[in-house]
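Researcher: Please translate sequence to structure tokens.
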Amino acid sequence: MTKVLLYRKEGCSLCDEAERILERLKKDSRFFLERITLEPNTDLFERFGDKVPVVFINEKLLFEFKLDERAFLKKLSEAD
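Model: Translation complete:
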């Protein structure tokens, strides 16, 4: 099964929007969604904190700042 990883921060409206989109799409598309909330003062926060939401499909970085639904579905179909 395809793995989708979402890096997010608390209080991030773009992160909330990306998560809502992914939850909705997950109902019709088969993928496992893992969410990681970035904590301050960690390596992941330093790397991605200013770019959230960040979305990976099968460990490949595909989206930063905003999730494009149409592009996500295309990349997801290519990942199968």
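Researcher: Any highlights?
Model: The longest helix spans residues 13-26.
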